[in-house]
Amino acid sequence: AQIAPEVFRKVFHSFNAACADTDTFRGYRILAVDGTAVNMPRNPNAPSFVQNESAPKGYNQLHVNPLYDVLNKTYFDVVIQPEPQKDEIGALVEMLKQNDFNQKTLIVADRGYESYNLLAHLIEKPNTDFLIRVKQNHSAMREIARLPMFELDCDISFTITTTQTNEDKQRRYIFLQVPKKSKPGSKTRRGRWDFQSPYTMKLRIVRFQLETGEFETIATSLSRSFKLEDVKELYHMRWGIETSFRDLKYSLGLVNLHGKSDAFVEQEIYSALTMFNFTSMIVREVVIQQPKNGIYAYRV
């Protein structure tokens, strides 16, 4: 109890700083982002306590928002939030602010991260590109919703404004209704805007058809040197963060917590992330002798 969770966070980052993650995709470090919940013992007095109509007795959860290096199988950074204050977009913005990416980095995200404010943060961050699966129906971003529903690879450009003058309307600017003082925990894409107004944004939109006949739409800042097949492969890599959550919780035992307070569970989350990275590095260095007549390839 006398050791703050920040100490465990420092250990996590110090360990990462001493490691060399070398695997890249055409020079890019691939970082997937997603969130997962960690269930805790019930404690109504903790910030992590959730109570609603579907759970009248309430329960406790912390929301873990990591950036995961899918090629090197290591966790790069994390933001931990009480479940009632969950804000996955805000967590990614926070990680972008607190990290200097000294090598080319691609952030890969699933639906739910399409936010004008987040996209602007990604565009403005040096050495950083993004590849985000976005909505494509009537609730999609206006310029994306207008695109025809077939395979395409095109550039779109639009201007965002926080004012609603006649000139803004004539120029068909996208109006963001931002409160005068944006709340840091705002979840909607209209809740926050951290840049000047007007702000012109350019995106490359890639839409492809799956074997099921359904379409997937990707917004990216990658150049045309990355073909359609590259975009598909990079998006598919995002699945690595989902399997890492399973290993983190069950192989490393994050489902079996030892503490009841939010601070103790934060300590355990940082400890598990550090041990996950340590184990991944050992596995990466193991030399496997494949049997000459074996049916299956051996792996650690």
How does this model look, in words?
The mean pLDDT is 90. It is globular and about 60 Å long. The longest helix is centred in the last third of the chain and has 24 residues, at 262-285. It has helices at residues 5-17, 88-98, 116-124, 142-145, 166-170, 228-237, 239-251, 262-285; strands spanning 29-33, 36-40, 49-52, 55-69, 74-82, 105-109, 128-133, 152-161, 174-175, 199-209, 215-220. With 300 residues, the chain is α+β, with helices and mostly antiparallel strands. It has eight helices and eleven strands. A hairpin with a 5-residue loop joins strand 10 (199-209) and strand 11 (215-220). Strands 1, 2, 3, 4, 5, 6, 7, 8, 9, 10 and 11 form an eleven-stranded mixed β-sheet that branches. It starts with a helix and ends in a 15-residue tail after the last helix.
Uncertain parts = none
Radius of gyration from CA coordinates: 21 Å
Write the element-wise H/E pattern from the N-terminal end onward. Answer: HEEEEEHEHEHEHEEEHHH
- Count of β-strands: 11
**Portion in beta strands:** 25-35%
- Largest beta-sheet details: 11 strands, mixed
Summarize the structure.
This protein is an alpha+beta fold and 300 residues long. 30% of the residues lie in helices and 26% in strands. Strands 1, 2, 3, 4, 5, 6, 7, 8, 9, 10 and 11 form an 11-stranded mixed sheet that branches.
Task: Write the SSE topology.
Elements: H1 5-17, E1 29-33, E2 36-40, E3 49-52, E4 55-69, E5 74-82, H2 88-98, E6 105-109, H3 116-124, E7 128-133, H4 142-145, E8 152-161, H5 166-170, E9 174-175, E10 199-209, E11 215-220, H6 228-237, H7 239-251, H8 262-285
Parallel strand pairs: 1-6, 6-7, 8-9
Antiparallel strand pairs: 1-4, 2-4, 3-4, 4-5, 7-11, 8-10, 10-11
